[in-house]
Amino acid sequence: MEGDGPYSYSNNSHAQRIFIEVAKPIIDEAIAHELDLRNFSLSSNPFSIVDLGCSTGPNTFIAVKNILDSIKQKHQSLGHTSQISEFLIYFNDHTSNDFNTLFASLPLDRQYFAAAAPGSFHGRLFPESSVHFFHSSNAIHWLSKAPEELVDRKSLAWNKGRVHYTNAAEEVCDAYGAAQFRKDMENFFECKRKRDCCWRIDGVNRECYSKWDVPLSSKSNRSHGVINEEQVESFNIPIYVVNPENLREAVERNGSFRMVKMEMIESILKINYGDEITNVNWWTRMLRSGNEDIITKHFGSGIMDQLCQQFTVNALEVTKNFNWDELKGYQLLVILKRYK
Question: Between residues 107 and 189, which one has the greater pLDDT?
Fold first, then answer.
């Protein structure tokens, strides 16, 4: 999937960028009080940082720069006269990510070495004792896969007529959270447990992903032959919006990390472009940029234009009374430190 087109994440991730900037002072404070640089200041090995789920575009570079600036400030505050060891940044995402576009747009003034780490962050990506700092923003809510029970007609968790768990039966919610999310988090933390990671910073997106239910399940799409009922019934979006209690339980079950901070961030998204249609078109492009890859892999590439047209029509009806100036987004920010 190309990373620089009109519907790319790079060109439609304004809201995600806001949360990176809002999180910056929280991360700065945590690094200032918790990060131990004594073992790294005079090390000949590079200080390695990973951005998990980096996607394509400037957001990952902004997040990395914020972290580097904060670490350098902490280094100076300790009274060190020598420069901190070199930095090595790993940009991680699925193999389908457009790494060519990502690396072609690397900042010219960057003060770090860059490398790609393709693959799912639910599995092991690095050798032991090779990473000092993990970061992720707007990515951890993606599951490794949708729960298998959702497409089993004999299961109580059969998610008929829906593509997500929002407003679905309790069994569907349990399949997402109590089963799949729990399993994914166990693998996620276990794969990071043996790394030399001083830090983990996870952004868990709080946005509702049920917005595709109506257009994907629409009789209009089926009557025009765009999709069929069997395709809809076999598709579910693998996203789980975790609540703080469940995430805390996952951390405690693993036992390898101390929770330094957990905070729900609320922010005005600042996306009022002056008229309803333009605002809704922005909303549609944002959702398309994040979901197009998984939708087209299941339904085919020819579905997106008509799907988004119908989504826009539905959204215009829903947002008639929206106050776009006050539209808020929420993100759960968690900072973890590995026990020695």
Answer: 107
Q: What percent of the chain has pLDDT over 90?
A: 45
**Exposure string for 260-292, b = 16+ CB within 10 A, e = fewer:** bbbeebebebebbeeeeeebbbbbbbbbbbbbb
Which of the two residues, 224 and 183, has the higher pLDDT score? Answer: 183
Contact 52, 134 (CB under 8 A): yes
List 335's β-bridge partners, or say none: 201, 261
Using the 8-state DSSP alphabet, how is residue 142 labeled? B
**Helix (H/G/I), strand (E/B), else coil: 257:** strand
Question: Which residues neighbour 38 within 8 Å (Cβ) at sequence distance 6 or greater?
Answer: none
Q: Is 331 helix (H, G, I), strand (E, B) or coil?
A: strand
Domain residues of the chain, as ranges? 14-213+238-270+324-338
Q: What does the alpha-carbon distance between residue 338 and residue 132 come to, in Å, rounded to a whole number?
A: 10
List the one residue out of 209, 143, 152, 138 whose CA is nearest residue 177. 143
Report the alpha-carbon distance of residue 32 to residue 7 in Å, rounded.
38
Rounded to an integer, what is the distance from CA 78 to the centroid of its chain?
A: 33
Residue 217 confidence (pLDDT): 54
> If you average pLDDT over every residue of the chain, what do you get?
85
Neighbours of 86 (CB within 10 A): 14
Interatomic CA distance for residues 17 and 138, integer angstroms: 10
pLDDT of residue 44: 65
Lowest mean pLDDT among 63-67, 175-179, 299-303: 299-303
Res 95 pLDDT > 70 = yes
The predicted pLDDT at position 274 comes to 84
User: Which spans in 35-181 are helix H?
Assistant: 58-77, 99-104, 170-174
Neighbours of 335 (CB within 10 A): 22
CB 289 within 8 A of CB 5: no
Look up the CATH superfamily of 14-213+238-270+324-338: Vaccinia Virus protein VP39 (3.40.50.150)
Asked if residues 335 and 323 have their Cβ atoms less than 8 Å apart, the reply is: no
Amino acid at site 215:
P
- Coil, helix or strand at residue 138: coil
Q: Between these two residues, 305 and 219, which has the higher pLDDT value?
A: 305
